[in-house]
Write a structure and sequence with these properties.
- By secondary structure, the protein is an all-alpha fold.
- The protein has two domains: 31 residues; 67 residues.
- It contains five helices and no strands.
- It starts with a helix and ends with a helix.
């Protein structure tokens, strides 16, 4: 319990920053009109390619005997890939709506 209290007192500014960024993010996302929500979210999902590259980089530098890190890295690559593909699928479906029949 003492170590948890020490962590919070030592990293107080970082914790305040994260809490403030959550509130700012909610306000920014809440102010987006409904018409723009889908293209912005599909673009944000495509940016998750950075997560894939980061997870692969971390997995390359992990000790092969560290099974927990390898499993978490694999899950990060898998979920990041699903998010990127989902973003492109949503964008493709959105662009299909604007094509002439």
């Amino acid at each position: 319990m003492e170590s948890i209290f020490h962590f919070f007192t030592e990293n107080r500014e970082m914790i305040y920053f994260v809490i403030l960024s959550v509130f700012v993010g909610v306000e920014v996302i809440g102010g987006v009109p409904t018409v723009l929500h889908t293209p912005l979210m599909s673009g944000a999902n495509a940016i998750h390619g950075v997560v894939i590259v980061g997870a692969i980089y971390v997995m390359l530098n992990v000790d092969p005997s560290d099974v927990v890190s390898l499993i978490l890295g694999f899950l990060a690559v898998l979920l990041g890939t699903l998010n990127v593909v989902g973003g492109f699928v949503v964008t493709d479906r959105m662009l299909e709506m604007f094509k002439k029949k």
